[in-house]
Amino acid sequence: MSFSGTVKEELAENTASARHCQLAEFAAIIEFCGVIGKTKEGKDVIGISSENPSVVKKCFTLLKKTFNIVSSVDLENEESVWNIIQGLKLMDKGTFRGLNVPASPMLLKNSCCKRAFLRGAYLCVGSMSDPNKGYHLELVCETEEQAVQIVGLLADFDIEAKTIIRKKYHIVYLKESSAIVDFLNVIEAHVAMMEFENLRILKDVRNTVNRRVNCETANISKTVNAAAKQIEEIERIRDTVGFKNLPPNLREMAEVRLEHPDATLSELGEYLSPKVGKSGVNHRLRRLSEIAERI
């Protein structure tokens, strides 16, 4: 199962105890997965359209807890339909607003209800990439109004989300790993959040190690190349003008470098008499290089 699917399984098992929070989460499910139609007899029918078993499972749970309805995903009883419409504040001045409209602000007054609504929204239209491969979480909305509502609710928890239009859909997305962690915490997917954090830490450590190894490898390569160049230049001096024509300090430096081709600048300084610091060694080698270039 994908990481996103694991998150949804956890959310399906997480149901708030307060009825106002249950209504908020059910409002999200109706907003993003609700459909309305009529039977052959002309009766109104409210249904849930989702291929995700977690959504269906949560729908059954919330129907039982909020409206004491034990039914299938299609509700044909007029009284039950009316109770749901009333309970979810889908009437505006006596007019039915529809199912797939932004949830009423009256249902989202409390912070806990906002959490519950976002939980239901992710359950219905959310997805996220495998944290091992990258960081990306998104919620797919059919309308701009839905996207604006989600962005606003996330902002209430100091989570900055962005939106794009993909085909006919409005996508709310997060790409920062810290924002995704905050989101998982907000919707109370705590097990998934801890797993995400562990994977993120492991990935960061691995990247840090790789950067250090690459840096050290580059430094070693640079040191080896520099030493090879120095030896080549010193041998050129030896084979042409000879060491006897060099000042004593440069002659000693040239001989020590040839005797210790793998030594670092600091180590070379230890072999000189008297000992010389790294900068002094570098200065002498640079003077030898200048002589070699003139040759």
H-E string = HHEEHHEEHEEHEEHHHHH
Termini separation (Å)?
70 Å
CATH homology-level superfamily of the largest domain: Homing endonucleases
Structural class: alpha+beta
Q: Can you tell me the residue ranges where pLDDT is under 50 for at least 5 consecutive residues?
A: none
Draw up the topology in text:
Blueprint: H1 3-12, H2 19-33, E1 34-38, E2 44-48, H3 53-67, H4 78-87, E3 91-92, E4 95-96, H5 111-125, E5 126-128, E6 137-141, H6 144-155, E7 162-166, E8 169-174, H7 177-186, H8 190-240, H9 248-259, H10 265-271, H11 278-294
Antiparallel strand pairs: 1-2, 3-4, 5-6, 6-8, 7-8
Helix pairs in contact: 1-3, 2-3, 2-5, 7-8, 8-11, 9-11, 10-11
Describe the structure.
There is one protein chain. The protein is α+β, with helices and mostly antiparallel strands and 295 residues long. It folds into 2 domains: 3-188, Endonuclease I-creI (Roll); 221-294, no CATH class. It is 59% helix and 11% strand. The protein is built from 11 helices and 8 strands. The protein has a 4-stranded antiparallel β-sheet. A two-stranded antiparallel ribbon has the order 1-2. Helix 2 (19-33) crosses helix 3 (53-67), helix 8 packs across helix 11 and helix 9 (248-259) crosses helix 11. It is rod-shaped.
Quick recap of the structure?
Helices cover 59% and strands 11% of the residues. It is an alpha+beta fold and 295 residues long. It has two domains: 186 residues, Endonuclease I-creI; 74 residues, no CATH class.
